[in-house]
Structures are given as structure tokens and as C-alpha cells.
Specification:
Number of strands of chain B: 0
Largest sheet of chain B: none
Number of strands of chain A: 0
Shape of chain A: globular
Shape of chain B: extended
Oligomer: heterodimer
Number of helices of chain A: 13
Distance between the termini of chain B: 51 Å
Helix content of chain B: over 70%
Strand content of chain A: under 5%
Distance between the termini of chain A: 69 Å
Structural class of chain A: mainly alpha
Number of domains of chain B: 2
Number of helices of chain B: 7
Radius of gyration of chain B: 21 Å
Strand content of chain B: under 5%
Helix content of chain A: over 70%
């Protein structure tokens, strides 16, 4: 006859369908909540869905690895989506070319700020050494940040957490901060979001405009390169 | 549509191969983005099927970060003791980076100067 609820749960939990459905439902509910509430920054859909999913996994005693086995099919699309950022970049390329020098200067300033502020504040707040190295590349996109962290003696999986937290923080507070500072140019807003908050910032920038999204995607790629080159140099200058 | 998906996958695959072969400090998808950009620049336009697929992927870019984001649960216990200092460093550094980058760009970019000239032509505030 019919199986027990526990059996059905175990059966469903073994297939990707449950994790994928959970991810999509959580994200859509979070998006609906965000829209309903008038788009308050703190109800950022990524933040709310992550909190909801962690809560569901914790309550049901499901391991993250089990969840990710299924959810990896959504995760996989990050690669192709990153490639697709070439499309807005191509469409906005006239603007990019006209401001090449400004982009290079802003990116360099931003990348150095990201690195220096972590080292200075981290030392001031007495952050433990392993956490500090794992924190330092946080503004670079995850695979690059994890590689740098590993080379300098950090924990790559901890770096991944910091990278994503940085992305969420930037997309929650960044647009508000840029408003406060009177930065209205979509190119400048996109560059700021992408340099500090990589892909998650770019997702936020794309919601503002295609121009902001294009500059943000460009900044994400350039800052991955800049962080990979600059951070090891700065690190050795400071810590020998 | 299938050809557009294939083109995107091929760019990513070539990017992954280049990244692995050269040891460049860039992930495969970022190199793939540069490759697709180069192809579009040579071609001189975005094929409509590629535009559709690209829009579909980018329309829900935020969603794609959710599975990795939930990975924070693996580190909650390690972070417990240091939540306050780490949180302060993360927030301050992220916001400083956005502000410095955005502000620098807004000072130098031609777009902003045009906007300011436009403003200058308006009646005094």
C-alpha cells in the first residue's frame, strides 16, 4: 500500500527535483515579497531566499551537500550567464571605449580600496589571521577569490562565504549609498557595484539599466584580474 | 535558440580550456565573456536568438547565486565567535569600494560631464 511520509520524503530528497523546486519557490516568494513591500533594500531577494533555504534545511535536518546535489543545476547556469554578459557589454561598448581611461582609474582605485580596507580594518579589529587572508579577495568573483585565498594560505570555502556576503551587502546597500553620494551616471553606478560586489552586484545593476549592468559585468571581470595581480603584491609588502 | 545556447557553451568551454592551459588568474566564464564579446565585435551585431537566450539568463541572474549562498550554513559555527568584527570589516570595505569606484568614475566619465553641463544650463536651483 501507500508508503509512509518518511519514505516519500527520503525518495524525493534523493532526486534533484526537490532542491530545485525549493530554490525556485523560495526565490519567487522572496521576489514577490520584495515587490509587495515596495522594494526595500533589506528584503533583497537573494538574501531572503538564502535565509529561507537555510531555515528549511536546518529544520528538516537536510545536509547542505544533499541540497546542493540538486540545486547545482541552477548553480551551473552561472557560467553561461557570465558569458552572456558579453551581450550588454557589446551593446554599450561605444560608451565603454569613450571612458576607457576613467574606467581604468576608477577600477584601480576601487580594487586597492577593497584590499587595503580589509587589511587595515581587519588588523584594527584583530580578525584572526586565517579569516583575514580568506577575507582579503572578497570583492573578486568567487572562483578567482578562492584561488587567491588558497595561494596565500586562506580557506577557499570560507572565502566563498565572504564573497557571497560581500555581493549581497553591495546589492542591498550599494544603490542607496550611490544615491546618497549623488552618483547618478549608470556607468559609474555599474562600475562601483561590479568592482565591489562582482556578479551579485551585477545582477542588481542590471535591474537599474542595461548600461549599469554592462559596466558592472565589465568591472567584475577587470576586478578579478586586478585583485589576482594586486592582492599578492600588497600582501607581501604588508606581511613580508 | 539551440544554436545560441551552443555558442554560449562553446565560449565558456573555450574559456575554461584557456584558463586551465595558461594559468591566467581569470575563471573560464569570464574568459568566455571576452571571447563572446570578440565574436560579437567581429560580427558587428547580436543575433536575435542570442539576444533572447542572453536576456533569459540575465533576467534572473540573482537566482543563480542562491544555491551557493545557502552554503553559508556550513560556516555558521566558525563565524559565530567573529561575527561582529567580520561583519564590520565586510560592510565597511564593501561600501568604501562602491563609493570610491563610483565616485571616481562619476568625476571622470564624459557622461557625467555632459549631465553637469546640461544641469548648468538649467535655471539656478
Amino acid at each position: 500500500m501507500s508508503r509512509s511520509i518518511g519514505d516519500i520524503w527520503a525518495y524525493l530528497a534523493a532526486s534533484p527535483l526537490l532542491s530545485l523546486t525549493l530554490t525556485l519557490v523560495a526565490y519567487q516568494l522572496a521576489t514577490a515579497l520584495y515587490e509587495r513591500a515596495g522594494r526595500p533594500a533589506l528584503l533583497n531577494p537573494v538574501l531572503v531566499s538564502v535565509v529561507a533555504i537555510v531555515a528549511v534545511l536546518t529544520v528538516t535536518g537536510t545536509r547542505y551537500e544533499t541540497y546542493f546535489d540538486g540545486a547545482q543545476f541552477v548553480h551551473f547556469l552561472l557560467g553561461p550567464a557570465t558569458v552572456a554578459l558579453a551581450i550588454p557589454l557589446y551593446r554599450q561598448f561605444d560608451r565603454v571605449r569613450r571612458s576607457a581611461v576613467a574606467i581604468a582609474a576608477s577600477l584601480l582605485a576601487g580594487s586597492l580600496t577593497a584590499i587595503a580596507s580589509v587589511i587595515v580594518l581587519g588588523l584594527a579589529m584583530r580578525v584572526d589571521a586565517v579569516s583575514l587572508v580568506s577575507l582579503a579577495p572578497k570583492s573578486a568573483t568567487a572562483p578567482v577569490a578562492m584561488g587567491i585565498s588558497e595561494k596565500l594560505g586562506g580557506l577557499p570555502s570560507l572565502t566563498a562565504v565572504f564573497v557571497i556576503t560581500t555581493g549581497i551587502l553591495g546589492s542591498v546597500f550599494g544603490p542607496f549609498l550611490l544615491d546618497l553620494a549623488g552618483v547618478r551616471d549608470p556607468a559609474a553606478r555599474g562600475l562601483g557595484l561590479g568592482t565591489a560586489s562582482h556578479g551579485i552586484g551585477t545582477a542588481r545593476a542590471l535591474q537599474e539599466s542595461e548600461a549599469a549592468g554592462a559596466f558592472s559585468g565589465l568591472a567584475m571581470g577587470l576586478n578579478a584580474l586586478a585583485t589576482a595581480i594586486l592582492l599578492p603584491i600588497v600582501w607581501h609588502l604588508v606581511f613580508g | 535558440m539551440l544554436n545560441a545556447i551552443t555558442a554560449i557553451f562553446l565560449c565558456q568551454l573555450a574559456g575554461e580550456a584557456i584558463s586551465a592551459a595558461t594559468g591566467l588568474p581569470l575563471p573560464g566564464p569570464v574568459i568566455g565573456m571576452a571571447l563572446l564579446f570578440a565574436i560579437l565585435a567581429i560580427r558587428g551585431s547580436v543575433p536575435s536568438s542570442l539576444a533572447r537566450v542572453g536576456n533569459g539568463l540575465l533576467a534572473h541572474l540573482s537566482l543563480l547565486f542562491v544555491p551557493a549562498g545557502a552554503g553559508i550554513m556550513l560556516h555558521l559555527s566558525r563565524l559565530e565567535g567573529e561575527v561582529l568584527p567580520l561583519g564590520i570589516v565586510l560592510i565597511a570595505s564593501t561600501l568604501a569600494t562602491i563609493l570610491v569606484t563610483g565616485w571616481t568614475m562619476s568625476r571622470f566619465s564624459p557622461g557625467q560631464r555632459v549631465a553637469e553641463q546640461d544641469n548648468a544650463g538649467e535655471p539656478r536651483r
